Amino acid sequence: MKGLEARFGELLKELRNKKGLTQEELATDCGLDRTYISMLERGLRQPTLTTLFKIAEVLNVSPSSIVKQLE
Amino acid sequence: MKGLEARFGELLKELRNKKGLTQEELATDCGLDRTYISMLERGLRQPTLTTLFKIAEVLNVSPSSIVKQLE
DNA sequence: TTCACATTCAGACTATAGTCGTCAAACAAT
DNA sequence: ATTGTTTGACGACTATAGTCTGAATGTGAA
Known about the structure:
The structure is a homodimer of 71-residue chains.
Chain A: H1 4-18, H2 23-30, H3 34-41, H4 49-58, H5 63-68
Helix pairs in contact in A: 2-3, 2-4
The structure holds a DNA duplex (30 and 30 nucleotides).
Keywords (chains A, B): DNA-binding
Pfam families (chains A, B): HTH_3 (PF01381)
GO molecular function, one term (chains A, B): DNA binding
């Protein structure tokens, strides 16, 4: 079983691509750093709650739906 | 509108009490520190994803249901 | 090829998640 | 009043979330 961070990273990349955003666009819209988004997608970092909420808002999905896909 | 950390803290306290656990019992079952649980409940800290999952498991609720109550 | 854009990687940095030891406040029970 | 239990609060600490700059690598189109 893959780690939680890795699964979150894959999902994030998938959702971002579905919205047609680059990592940099997502980052600036979230008020986050470009390289940090890259690390999230590669499973090298995991978000805090508020970061999850910021990302979900920009991606137009509910934070809970993201979490649900990780369960 | 109250901050996300504060709302998470209140919810955590409510769920913990509903299960009849002390902060210390919850902490050891989660593999976390007692003082950290105290800080979470007081809204002084916010969890990362994996911490959210650990806590949810011990409380017998789904992580997404916790997040959903914060939206 | 070359140009432009997207992503990875690396290092140094700041902010905060999370630990640990301890003590005091609050609240029960006797 | 005292004993035990729970929680709050504190400072100091370690681990990691998150920033910043820049360079290397990839990708695709002209």
